[in-house]
Amino acid sequence: MQLIRVLRVTACAAISALSVCQAVLGDDFKRPKPAAIALACGGCHGTYGQGMGSIPAIRGIPESEFIRAMQDFQSSSRSATVMDRIARGYQHQDFVGLARFFRNR
């Protein structure tokens, strides 16, 4: 009886975790959704990308400018404190998604 209860709880936890993963990663489970990636940006750039102190705003930037900046950080052709290292963890499609996400914030 105890084993059955443990198995049920474990199954429920697994289903819950799968639901959270799908909400964050999307239907294909391959790349995180832009909104999920943007949560990480908010730590420095502000919840809505409004900028904080010496950290620049990233909201309202034209998509092409945002993407170019991220590509420049990624290739280290644009100097940065940490953005060059952060940008290396993303793919072009992530930059496009983030550019669209922050464009209308």
What descriptors fit this protein?
single chain; 105 residues; Cytochrome Bc1 Complex, Chain D, domain 2; 2 domains; 5 helices; heme binding; electron transfer activity
Proportion of residues in extended strands: under 5%
Domains, number: 2
Question: What do the pLDDT scores average to?
Answer: 82
Return Rg in Å. Answer: 18 Å
What is the correct CATH architecture of the largest domain?
Orthogonal Bundle
Distance between the termini: 53 Å
Quote the CATH topology of the largest domain: Cytochrome Bc1 Complex, Chain D, domain 2
Query: How many distinct beta strands?
Result: 0
- Decide which structural class fits the backbone: mainly alpha
The count of helical stretches stands at 5
Sequence stretches where pLDDT stays below 50 over 5 or more residues: 16-21
CATH class of the largest domain: Mainly Alpha
* Helix-strand topology string: HHHHH
Shape: globular
CATH superfamily of the largest domain: Cytochrome c-like domain
Major sheet characteristics:
none
GO molecular function, one term: electron transfer activity
Signal peptide: 1-22
Keywords: Signal
Organism: Methylocaldum marinum
